[in-house]
Amino acid sequence: MLRDLGLQDLPEDRRNGVLYALTLMLGYPTSTDQRTGRVAWDVKARPVAEGGARFTTFSERVGNADMHTDSSFYPMPEEQFILYVVAAARCNGGQSLLVGVEEIYQTLQASPAGRAAFELLSTTPVPFRVPAIYAAGDEQVEVFTATVFGPARRPGARCTIRWRYDSIMKGLAARPDLDTPELRDAIALMNHAAEHAAPRFVHQLATDTLLLVDNHHMLHGRTTYDDEKRHLIRIRISDLPNAERIGPSGVARD
Ligand SMILES: [Fe+2]
């Protein structure tokens, strides 16, 4: 976390240009929005669409965000992302939360059921449904299957994590063939560890703060807020050039 980055008086295009330059030094920025190809994503509340039935994503709405990893519903989630705070929530809400995969692991190891859940979620693929804003079309249900825990990707790490509870619940509804009571129990235990039991970093990021997140070895989320002026910029960063990436988040138009 870097405070007082010094970008808050810059116009939007200059500010986003500096953020983009920073991400270029860390890897390869991706454009995860299939429809617009945008790299710098505005994390702020959007007006609710007519009908209101779309499966929206956390960055589009006020309220809390359950603990998750980004691009969990894609074949190759980016290794890192940055969040830059353009305007912090004024209502003292919207704290950023981080939980390391090691803390999740240790929490699950504390009980026999938790150990069984870790084992099952390391070996059994679960279905992740793609939120409507990222899907090719609103009417089409897209699902990607992957294990929650995978092999470590950096020295000293126990394993990687891929997680998004609401996407998995909607994925199980779309793929009942993968739905079992054992898997449901494991997902519920994992969700409890992620939301409540595991120790976490809790911090309200001030305006002009930059947060760099390891998206393969930690979960992130936020506490609830209702200030619609809260505004962050997110840029996701891959270790691989876009041309070598598989799936929608490999699309590069930047
Ligand atoms: Fe996220």
Keywords:
single chain, 254 residues, alpha+beta, Double-stranded beta-helix, 5-stranded antiparallel sheet, 4-stranded antiparallel sheet, 22% strand, globular, binds fe (ii) ion
Cofactors, ions and other ligands in the entry: fe (ii) ion
Spell the H/E element sequence. Answer: HEEEEEHHEEEEHHEEEE
Low-confidence segments, given as residue ranges, are: 250-254
Q: Structurally, how many domains make up the residues?
A: 1
Question: How many alpha or pi helices?
Answer: 5
Q: What can be said about the biggest beta sheet?
A: 5 strands, antiparallel
* CATH architecture assignment: 4-Layer Sandwich
Cα end-to-end separation: 26 Å
Polypeptide structure, described:
It is a single chain. With 254 residues, the protein is of the alpha+beta class. The chain has a single domain, classed as 4-Layer Sandwich (Double-stranded beta-helix). The chain is 24% helix and 22% strand. The chain has five helices and 13 strands. It has helices at residues 12-24, 101-109, 112-123, 165-174, 181-197; strands at 28-29, 41-43, 65-68, 80-87, 96-100, 126-129, 143-146, 149-151, 159-161, 201-203, 210-214, 218-222, 231-238. Helix 2 (101-109) packs across helix 3 (112-123). The longest helix is centred in the C-terminal third of the chain and has 17 residues, at 181-197. It is globular. Fe (ii) ion (FE2) binds next to loops. The site of fe (ii) ion (FE2) has 4 residues, from loops.
